[in-house]
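User: quick one, fold this
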Amino acid sequence: MKQFLKKVHKGIYIAVVVFFFVLFFPFLYFLSRKKERYPILNHFRRAYAYISSTLVGFNYKYKVEKEIDWTRTYIFCANHTSNLDITVMTLIAKNNFAFLGKDELLDNPLLKMFFKTIDIPVDRSSRISSFKAFKRTAEYLKEGISVIIFPEGGIGDEYPPVLLPFKNGPFRLAIENKVPIIPISINDAWKLMWDDGSKYGSRPGICHICIHAPIETGDLTAEDADVLKDKVYDKIKSGLA
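Assistant:
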């Protein structure tokens, strides 16, 4: 019975997400056509994420280690165990932002519009795709657009989930562009909905998030990338219950 109710909840969540996507679609489509409209597009994404979550009982509580200066540009790095992590990061970022994510999301009917416009798809198995994606990411950072990256590279098959090793890319980008990294520890999202919810369904509840203090990269060199990666990994892990 419990598993049945979780499946029902997941169905309701998908229905709510689709309903509000269709409702917001004309605005999202119009705003996604030109880069100068991206800040307004992100306001709509936040509203869309908040409404869709709240109506089905997904709530978020934040612990902030240090007040964030939202006039600066950042790379956000978070652990990844649930599709809810996308919602969490959309709500956290208060400045103009874009996601760097796997190119499989181009096939997602709800996300492909974003990954064909504001967000950055990458095929990590292709050097050419990776090069183009990281070049575009660097351009965004220079333009003052923060970038959200899940450095594990995807959601693992382990259940309960474990924190997987990080890819090197985000840390090289941060150092090369002298952009601080904000580590994010997302707790409990997998308990509410693991991965896309297709296997175990979903349930209402509270997701606890720790927003760690920014880690500066201004004095670092390319040789420090692995040290930075380990530092961010340890920081995120320290915030996971």
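User: anything notable?
Assistant: The chain has eight helices and seven strands.
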